[in-house]
Amino acid sequence: MDESAAEQEWASIPISAIEHFGYCPRQAALIHLDRYFADNVDTQRGHFAHEVVDAGGPGVSRTGVRTWTALEVSDTTLGVHGICDVVEFPDGQPIPVEHKSGSYRPGSAADLQVAAQVICLRGMFSADVPHGVIFAGRQRRRHEVVVDDALQARLRDVVARLRAVLRAGSLPPPVNDRRCDRCSLKEGCMPDARIDASSLFVPLPLGRWDD
Amino acid sequence: MTELLRTLFVSTPGTSLHLEGDTIRIHHPERPGRHIQPLIRIDQLVVWRGVDVSDELMLRCLADDRGITWLSRNGRFLGRAGGAQLGNPLLRLEQVRAYDDAARRLTIAKSVVAGKLQNYRQLLLRIARDADGARQSDIRAIAERHAEALIAVASCGSLTELLGIEGNAARAYFEGIPLLAKGVPPGRSRRPPENPFNCVLSFCYTMLKVSVIGALEHRGLDPYIGYLHGVRPGKPSLALDLMEELRPLLVDRLVLTLFNRRRITAAHTRSDPAGGVALTDEGRAVVLTEWSQARERAWRHSGLNRDVPAALLPIVQTRLFARHLRGDEPAYTPWIAS
Lengths: 211, 338
Prior knowledge:
The complex is a heterodimer. In chain A, β3 and β4 form a beta hairpin. In chain A, strands 1, 2, 3, 4, 5, 6 and 7 form a 7-stranded mixed sheet that branches. Chain A is α/β, with parallel strands linked by helices. Chain A has a single domain, classed as Lambda Exonuclease, Chain A. In chain B, α4 packs antiparallel against α5 and α8 crosses α9. Chain B starts with 5 loop residues before the first strand and ends in a 13-residue tail after the last helix. Chain B is globular, with a radius of gyration of 20 Å. Chain B is an alpha/beta fold. Chains A and B meet through loops of A and α2, α3, α4 and α10 of B. Chain A: InterPro entries: CRISPR-assoc_prot_Cas4 (IPR013343), Dna2/Cas4_DUF83 (IPR022765), PDDEXK-like_dom_sf (IPR011604). Chain A: Keywords: Antiviral defense, Exonuclease, Hydrolase, Iron, Iron-sulfur, Manganese, Metal-binding, Nuclease. Chain A: It comes from Actinoalloteichus fjordicus. Chain A: This is CRISPR-associated exonuclease Cas4. Chain A: One of its GO terms (molecular function) is iron-sulfur cluster binding.
């Protein structure tokens, strides 16, 4: 494939795909290439946790900080776009607050996701935005993620690899490990499918299926 | 986790369906009371002409990817609404490329026929196991014809040749129908079906077709561009291709059982002056009840190494088919009962 529609399409990639890719490259491809999605308990919990922040528009937080929910952001240099759950403006400067229903693990894909949001906000508001925030629903705690050079370099690397997967247009092989047990896409991903066409034209004996 | 959901079939004319909160309210002037079905348990709606679906219900179904299919009073497919176009458009391009490539087209068509022959053979061998005497050896003889056909398919070099092999095997099967269902005349008749057996068979093929078309559209494939069945206006060829492997055990076996257990009797069908046979309203209700139950039955899927309910087999096979088209799998492997 040379300059196909697919390549132009992925000039900008959704920020949400970064976290999917961090979990499993095939999951990112299933969601963003195949447009396949399925829910399980974890994703449903996520939807419920997001109901408030998905409303969109201005508001004021409990601590009196001006906020905006479901803010669309993008950055053409990095080539990403997405929606920030909440952006707070404590001193007029934007800080993205990403809401997660589970617990926070430092160094995980959520860090990359919020870093991408920080980069977008820096460009769009011509502001410093030194950090973003991840709100972990399970512990009901905020975690500050400082977006330094090291994290930015990691982000650029992940975005480049993700873009390559999306441009290739085919599914990366399944990981078929413990990640699959909690993945809501397992059913459609079929990580353990054994495709064996060798006996297709050999008349098979009566199987064990029964009434 | 994909839950096994039900298809809501509504065939009684004069019925209207409404959205009420997260449920479907089913209303018929002659049926008192409030009848509701939770939307969350329903994966698609199949309604016959004369049933009214409210705009609000339709829009809600489209928003949730819950397909709605309309059928004529005789069960002919009229149309389907499925919300925004799903799936990856690159996949549809690949679907067309595979059609244009004679070698790829033949390879897929061969897989499709092999799946059909294998499963018809499974059905025949299963019935033969419980038969005896001449009837048993006659059924085994047809199964043997299917075995020979399979071997011929493996080395077959053209679509015409393939269609010939498939046609001969199908003829042998339908000529043997009296061996499989007592009192049923041999042969296959369609448009119109000339006896109750063929009538119920056609009706159930349509039900299967509805679910396969739904699975294909949901996956973003074009149901009208097929490989074995080619491309003809108004003919959902890819759905017909994928139905081949599913017909024997999901439809034929059910219909044979219905007749052998006398669940369908003369009162369930009626003939028209031209010799065509159609289901009565009561007959349709009986078949739909049995069909709905059969959809819940789990079948072993050797490729996935787990059980898959009949209702989900079209979805699973559509996914495997899409994977082959995109080059993620070297071949399309039909589901074969094991």
